[in-house]
Design a protein that fits this description.
The complex is a heterodimer of chains A (334) and B (470).
Chain A lengths: L3 H29 L6 H11 L3 H18 L1 H10 L1 H23 L2 H31 L3 E2 L2 E2 L9 H25 L2 H30 L3 H8 L3 H5 L1 H18 L5 H21 L2 E3 L3 E2 H4 L3 H28 L12
Antiparallel strand pairs in A: 1-2, 3-4
Chain B lengths: L5 H40 L2 H35 L1 H35 L1 H4 L1 H30 L4 E3 L5 E3 L2 H5 L4 H30 L4 H35 L1 H8 L5 E2 L3 E8 L4 E8 L2 H7 L5 E2 L13 H30 L7 H9 L3 H15 L4 E3 L3 E2 L9 H31 L23 H7 L7
Antiparallel strand pairs in B: 1-2, 3-6, 4-5, 7-8
Classes of the chains: A mainly alpha (334), B mainly alpha (470).
C-alpha cells in the first residue's frame, strides 16, 4: 500500500541510513583515534573527514527534523523515552564537532585534551546511538499519545550490546575509509584494524540478529513463519556472502572494496531491521500510519523534498569529488 | 515558581541552550555575508587587501560556524526530548517548516562549507566564490525558516485543530507568512549584520589603537562604521515597526516591556523602574510623561492597554521583559550614536584619528550579540505563559519527564557549554588578537599560498611574533 505516509517512512529511513553510513565513518575515525600513534597521522586521519563531517551530520538533523515534521507522534514518544542516551549523544557530538577546529587552535597540552574529547565524544555518541536503537527494538511503552515508561528503561543488557556492536561497526567503516584515503603507516594501521573489527562486526550482527528473535514474538514470526522464511533466508545468506567478501578483499589488499562491502553490510542489517519492524514505526505497536502527520503536512514537505533532495545529493557528491583521492601527510588543507 | 518543578528546569534548559546557540548562527549569518562581500571585492578589484581581510575572518567564521552546528543539533532534538506534547501538537505545522530549513539551508551551508574552507587550491577562485555565496545564502535561508517557525508560535494563523488536538495547516501561505514574521525576520537579520559589524569594527579598533596605519584594520573599521552609520538607524525604525506589530497581536508583551499595569491615556515612558507584581505597580520610577503613548499610538493622549486587563496567571514576568528591553534599546541608541559620530569624523577625514571613536567601538565589540540575546529574552519571556500564543500553555507543552532526568541533563548542558563554548570564545578572541597582515600570493597561479581555513597553531605563533600563548 503506497500512500504519503509510506513514502515518508521510506524517505526518513533513507535519511537515517545516509546518516549512519556517512557519519559512521567519521565517528569510526574518532573511535580509533587514540590507537593512531603519531600526531601527523592523527592529523591526516582528521583531515580525511574535515571537509565533509558537517554535511554528514546534517543527515541526523534531517532524520530528527523530518520525524518531527511527518511523524510528530513518533518523535514526541521516542525522544522522551530515550532521553538520557539522546542527551549524551548530543553532548558527545559537541565534543566531536568542535575538535576539528579546536585541535588547530589550542596549545600542545590542551590539544591533547581536545583530541581526547574528539575520541570520547565519538565513542559516547556511537554507544548512545546503538543503545537508543536497542531500546527502540525492545519497544516503547505508550499510553494516550505519550511515553509512559521510566527514565532508565533504555538501559538493558541487549541495548548495551547493540551499542557495542555499533562501536565495532562504525570502527569498521572508519578503518576501511582510512584504508581507502591514506598511504604508508597510517594505511597499514587501518588495514590491521579493519581486519580485526570486520570479524567483530560480523559476529555482532549474527549475535544481535539471533537475540532479537527472542525479544518480541513478532520478530520471530516475521522471519520464521511460512512462507516468509523462504524469501527472507536470503538476507542472512547475503550477510554471510558479503562478510566473506569483506574478509577476502582485505586479505587481497583491495583498497576500495572493503569500504563498499562494509557499507553494504550496514545497508543489509538496516533492511533486516525494517523487515522486523514493519508496519510499526515505534515497536511494539505504533504503526507508520498512526504516527503520521495529517496528509497536507506530508504533501507540503514532500514537494520540496522531491525537488531539493536530488540537488542536495548532487552538490554533496560534488564536494566529495573535489576532495577525492589520497590525503597526504601535512597536505595544505590549512 | 517551584524550583524543583521539572517543567521549570526544562524551561531553564531550553533558555540556556538557545541563548548560547543564537550567538553563533547570528554571527555566522553576518560573517558569511561579510566574507562574500570581501571575496567579491577581491575578485573585482584584484586588490589583496580584501583577500587579507577575507583570510583573517574566515578562520574566526569557521570556529563560530562549527559551534553553531553542534549547538544547533541540540535544538533540533530538544523539542522532542523536553517538549513532547508541544511537538506532537505543533509538529504537523512547524515540522515541515523546519524540514524546509534543513533541506534548503543546513545542507547548502554544510555542502559548500568544505569547499569554502579547504578548497580554494582545488577548485579555483570563481568556484570558490560560488561556494562562499552558497554558504551565505544558506545562513540567510536558515534565518527565513526558523524565524517563520518562531513567529507562527507568537502569532499563529492559517491553522485548524484536528480531532486528536494537533494544529493542522489550513493555508500554508498564511502559516509561513504569519503576521509577525516579516518584522521579526527583518529585525533579526539586521541584528545579525550589526552584531557582525560591531565585532569586526571593535576588532579593527583594537588594532588601530596600536597602529592606526594598518591598511587591513582600516578597511575593516571603515566598512564596519558604514554599517553603523546606515544600518543602525534602519534597525531602530524596524524595531519600532516590530513593536507596533507586537502591540497589535501581543499587547500583554508590550505592556510588560513598558512596565504598564494600568490601562491609561497618555502613558508615560518609564526610563527606570522595578515592577512589584504582587501590588501590580512600578516602583522607584523615572518617567517621561506621555511618551509611550506617543511612540505606540503616535498620539500624546492615546490609550494603552495595561497588564491588569489579564488575570495574573496570564501575564508574562514583568521585570525580565522590562529590563531586557531597556538593555536592547540602550545598545541600539549607542550604535546609532557611534554611527553618526563616525560619519562626522569621516567627513572631516579623521575617521582613523579619533581614539574616542576607537575606544567606543572597542567597548561595543560584543554589543550586537548582547542586544540580540536581550531582544530574544523580551520576545520569548514576553509571550509567556504560552508556547503557541493564546492556544497552548508552556506548562501543558512539556514531556512527561521525571525530575532527576531533567536536572541531570540541565547540569550536564551547563558544564559542557561553559567549558566547550567558553574555550571556543577564547580561541575566537585569540584569533581576533592577531595583527591583520597582507597575504602573500603564489606568483604563478595567483592563488594564495595557504588555502583559506584552518591555520596550525605554529603558523599563528609566527604571525603573532612568537607570542602565541594559552
Amino acid at each position: 500500500m503506497i500512500d504519503y505516509a509510506m513514502i515518508w517512512a521510506g524517505l526518513i529511513a533513507f535519511a537515517v541510513l545516509a546518516y549512519i553510513i556517512l557519519d559512521g565513518f567519521d565517528l569510526g575515525i574518532g573511535i580509533l583515534f587514540p590507537l593512531i600513534k603519531s600526531t601527523t597521522d592523527k592529523e591526516t586521519a582528521m583531515n580525511t573527514i574535515a571537509p565533509v563531517w558537517d554535511g554528514n551530520e546534517t543527515w541526523l538533523v534531517l532524520g530528527g527534523g523530518g520525524l518531527f515534521a511527518v511523524f510528530p507522534l513518533a518523535y514526541s514518544v521516542i525522544l522522551p523515552a530515550l532521553y538520557m542516551p539522546i542527551i549524551l549523544m548530543l553532548l558527545g557530538l559537541i565534543f566531536r564537532g568542535v575538535a576539528f577546529e579546536f585541535h588547530w587552535r589550542a596549545s600542545a597540552k590542551k590539544q591533547k585534551l581536545w583530541d581526547l574529547g574528539f575520541h570520547l565524544g565519538s565513542l559516547v555518541a556511537t554507544l548512545c546511538q546503538g543503545i537508543a536503537l536497542g531500546a527502540l527494538v525492545q519497544g516503547i511503552t505508550v499510553v494516550d499519545r505519550a511515553y509512559a515508561g521510566g527514565w532508565w528503561d533504555w538501559l538493558t543488557p541487549f541495548s548495551v550490546c547493540v551499542g557495542l556492536a555499533l562501536v565495532f561497526g562504525y570502527s569498521l567503516l572508519g578503518a576501511t575509509w582510512l584504508y581507502l584515503k591514506t598511504e604508508g603507516n597510517l594505511q597499514r594501521f587501518a588495514h590491521k584494524v579493519a581486519t580485526t573489527v570486520a570479524y567483530l562486526t560480523l559476529l555482532s550482527i549474527g549475535a544481535i540478529s539471533l537475540w532479537m528473535l527472542f525479544i518480541e514474538q513478532q520478530y520471530l514470526e516475521r522471519w520464521f513463519s511460512k512462507p516468509n522464511v523462504y524469501f527472507l533466508i536470503c538476507v542472512p545468506a547475503l550477510v554471510l556472502a558479503l562478510g566473506l567478501g569483506l574478509i577476502t578483499s582485505l586479505r587481497k589488499q583491495n583498497e576500495i572494496a572493503p569500504f563498499l562491502l562494509s557499507i553494504s553490510l550496514f545497508i543489509l542489517s538496516y533492511i533486516g531491521l525494517i523487515i522486523s519492524f514493519y508496519p510499526n514505526l515505534v515497536p511494539p505497536s505504533m504503526t507508520i500510519w498512526q504516527a503520521a502527520a495529517p496528509e497536507n503536512s506530508l504533501k507540503f514537505l514532500l514537494i520540496g523534498s522531491l525537488i531539493l533532495l536530488p540537488i542536495i545529493i548532487a552538490y554533496t557528491s560534488y564536494s566529495y569529488w573535489v576532495f577525492r583521492g589520497k590525503v597526504k601527510e601535512n597536505e595544505a588543507y590549512h | 515558581m517551584d524550583m524543583l518543578d521539572p517543567v521549570f528546569l526544562a524551561r531553564i534548559q531550553f533558555a540556556f541552550t538557545i541563548a548560547f546557540h543564537i550567538i553563533f548562527p547570528g554571527l555566522s549569518i553576518g560573517l558569511a555575508a561579510y566574507l562574500a562581500v570581501l571575496e567579491a571585492l577581491w575578485l573585482k578589484t584584484k586588490n589583496d587587501i580584501y583577500l587579507s581581510a577575507f583570510k583573517y575572518w574566515i578562520k574566526i567564521f569557521s570556529l563560530i560556524f562549527g559551534m553553531g552546528v553542534v549547538s544547533g543539533i541540540v535544538m533540533s532534538y530538544q523539542f522532542g526530548t523536553n517538549w513532547s506534547v508541544f511537538s506532537d501538537k505543533t509538529g504537523p505545522i512547524l515540522g515541515p517548516l523546519m524540514g524546509y530549513e534543513v533541506l534548503s539551508a543546513f545542507f547548502l551551508e554544510a555542502g559548500f562549507l568544505g569547499v569554502m574552507l579547504f578548497g580554494m587550491n582545488k577548485v579555483g577562485k570563481k568556484l570558490h566564490f560560488f561556494a562562499t555565496l552558497m554558504v551565505a545564502i544558506g545562513t540567510l535561508s536558515s534565518a527565513f525558516w526558523i524565524l517563520s517557525v518562531n513567529s507562527w508560535m507568537q502569532t499563529p494563523t492559517g491553522y485548524e485543530i484536528n480531532e486528536v488536538g494537533q494544529f493542522v495547516a489550513k493555508d500554508w501561505f498564511e502559516v509561513v507568512f504569519n503576521p509577525s514574521f516579516p518584522y521579526r525576520l527583518t529585525h533579526m537579520v539586521i541584528a545579525a549584520f550589526l552584531s557582525t559589524a560591531f565585532l569586526v569594527g571593535g576588532t579593527a579598533a583594537w588594532h588601530l589603537l596600536k597602529d592606526k596605519t594598518n591598511p587591513i584594520a582600516r578597511l575593516m573599521f571603515s566598512m564596519a562604521m558604514w554599517m553603523a552609520t546606515i544600518v543602525a538607524p534602519i534597525q531602530v525604525l524596524v524595531g519600532d515597526l516590530h513593536g507596533l506589530n507586537t502591540y497589535k497581536h501581543q499587547p500583554a508583551k508590550v505592556a510588560a516591556m513598558e512596565g504598564n499595569f494600568d490601562t491609561q491615556k497618555g502613558a508615560p515612558l518609564i526610563l527606570f523602574g522595578i515592577a512589584n507584581e504582587d501590588e501590580e505597580k512600578m516602583e522607584y520610577t523615572i518617567e517621561i510623561p506621555k511618551l509611550t503613548s506617543l511612540i505606540i499610538t503616535h498620539d500624546l493622549d492615546g490609550e494603552l492597554v495595561g497588564l491588569k486587563e489579564w488575570p495574573k496567571d496570564e501575564r508574562p514576568p514583568v521585570n525580565m521583559v522590562f529590563w531586557s528591553f531597556r538593555i536592547m534599546v540602550a545598545i541600539g541608541v549607542g550604535m546609532v550614536l557611534i554611527g553618526f559620530f563616525s560619519l562626522y569624523l569621516r567627513f572631516r577625514k579623521r575617521l582613523y584619528d579619533s581614539n574616542l571613536l576607537k575606544r567606543a567601538a572597542l567597548i561595543f565589540t560584543p554589543a550586537g550579540v548582547v542586544a540580540t540575546i536581550a531582544g530574544w529574552i523580551v520576545t520569548e519571556v514576553g509571550r509567556q505563559p504560552y508556547t503557541v500564543y493564546g492556544l497552548l500553555k508552556t506548562a501543558d507543552s512539556a514531556s512527561p519527564l521525571e525530575l532527576p532526568a531533567v536536572a541531570t541533563s540541565l547540569a550536564l548542558f551547563i558544564i559542557v557549554y561553559l567549558l566547550v563554548f567558553g574555550a571556543g570564545i577564547y580561541y575566537c578572541l585569540k584569533l581576533m588578537k592577531r595583527t591583520p597582515k597582507l597575504e602573500e600570493r603564489d606568483v604563478k597561479t595567483g592563488i594564495p599560498r595557504r588555502a583559506a581555513g584552518i591555520t596550525p597553531i605554529a603558523a599563528l605563533k609566527t604571525q603573532d611574533g612568537g607570542k602565541g600563548d594559552d
